[in-house]
Amino acid sequence: MKNNVGSTDKIIRILLAVIFTILIFTGEVSGALAIILGIVAVALVATSIFSFCPLYAVLKFSTSKKQ
Q1: What does the domain layout of the chain look like in residue ranges?
Q2: Dihedral, 54, 8, 46, 52 alpha carbons, nearest 10
Q3: DSSP H helical ranges for 1-67
Q4: pLDDT confidence bin for 2, thresholds 50/70/90
Q5: Which of 10, 48, 51, 67 has its CA at a distance of 20 to 30 angstroms from the CA of residue 16?
Q6: d(CA 22, CA 16)
Q7: Each residue's pLDDT tens digit, 6-64
Q8: CA distance 44 to 12
Q9: Contact 63, 9 (CB under 8 A)
Q10: pTM of the model
Q11: Torsional sign, CA 24, 29, 35, 36
């Protein structure tokens, strides 16, 4: 598993996950949309932690710096 998520990408993913979580817990979104945003938020955090995005791998795309 090769890293393909750069530091700026990680920050953006974490910020989006925080925003989605706030929207859910404040009641701004509910029902199916809240469930979907919750799943997306978990996926964003997971891809940030592991520095790997499966979609980027399929598309042969990377935002990480070359070593």
Answers
A1: 7-59
A2: 30
A3: 7-25, 32-50, 54-59
A4: confident
A5: 67
A6: 10
A7: 999 999 999 999 999 999 999 999 999 999 999 999 999 999 999 999 999 899 989 98
A8: 9
A9: yes
A10: 0.87
A11: negative
